[in-house]
Amino acid sequence: MALRFEPIRPEFGARVSGVTLNLGISDPAFSEFRRALDEYSVLVFPDQPMSDSQQIDFSRLWGPLEPTKGVNPASGTFFARQSNLDIATGTIISTSDRRMDYQRGNYQWHADSTFKRIPSLCSILTAREVPSEGGNTEFVSTRAAYEAKTEDERRELDSLTVEHDFSVSRGRVGFKFSPEEAAHYPPVWHPLVQTNPVTGRRSLLIGAHAAAIVDWPAEKGAALLAHLLDRATRPELVYSHRWQVGDVVIWDNRSVLHRATAYDTVNRRRLMQRTTISNPTVLETPAYRQIETRRLSIVAS
Ligand SMILES: [Fe+2]
User: Fold this and answer.
1) Which of 34, 151, 249, 262 could serve as a FRET partner for 58 with CA atoms 20 to 30 Å apart?
2) By residue range, what is the domain housing residue 220?
3) Alpha carbon of 161 to ligand 1 centroid (Å)
4) Can you give the C-alpha Rg of the chain in angstroms?
């Protein structure tokens, strides 16, 4: 069967068919996936159940895997676990448990790992257990958001540096890190505008972790970030993925935001396993080098 990409929305997203991921992926097929991620930003592979080891093998094709550290229950592995199930017992965690407060952070629009110094290329999420209602993952394109701006607006955005801070984004949902946990996540800087090195298309690195615009007064920076987020996430621009067990979805963390929708966490089970692909080579680009030079000069002064 031929590999097929069926667009989901005009701006982004494609459903992929004509492949069985667990049977091994030829180099030409993987090149097609890689090209498609640059073009579509979100790739949906329906009905491709994977074990943990199969997910790791598939994920390694895309680049270096981020190890999970800190507060996520799967800390110490290559998985980030999005679930209301206790990792050891498989039973439902009480809603008052701190781990569920942490999970609620995923209801905010965000891109994964933007609070890390080395940003992520993409995430791969596999559905292991899904509730009968809710628990969708929703996506919007920050490439479309950038491209909708006027030339003057884009010129200003191109010049800005954004600070991302995990403590701020979890704080927005009332989750507080302990001092030891917070030490894992110092604030980091990124170019607000990201450029895809293959297509040259630009996008905005915004979302819940985006806390400030560097060199701007806090209020002005927060207002710009809120405005950009508001425009990017208008309901008519959203693709909402209704999960079936066995679905695999890959998204480009440089060009889309995502969020989980609420579900009945008391009576329904949800287990999603994410692998996250790191993008260390972006740190060698002029935009990142400039930011790092600036940061080091501040540290030194
Ligand atoms: Fe996420």
Assistant:
1) 262
2) 4-300
3) 22
4) 19
Q: Which residues surround ligand 1, an ion (CB under 5 A)?
A: 112
Distance, in Å, from the CA atom of 100 to the CA atom of 90, rounded to the nearest integer, reads 14
Q: Give the tokens for residue 72.
A: 């996520």
Contact indicator for 272, 82 with CB cutoff of 8 Å: yes
Centroid of ligand 1 to alpha carbon of 258 (angstroms): 6
Question: Domain containing 121 — which CATH number?
Answer: 3.60.130.10
Number of domains in the chain: 1
Per residue of the chain (301 residues), give pLDDT as tens. 789 999 999 999 999 999 999 988 999 999 999 999 999 999 999 999 999 999 999 999 999 999 988 777 778 899 988 888 988 899 999 988 888 888 888 999 999 999 999 999 999 999 999 999 999 999 999 999 999 999 999 999 999 999 999 999 999 988 888 988 888 899 999 999 999 999 999 999 999 999 999 999 999 999 999 999 999 999 999 999 999 999 999 999 999 999 999 999 999 999 999 999 999 999 999 999 999 999 999 888 8
* Residue 276 Cα to ligand 1 middle (Å): 10
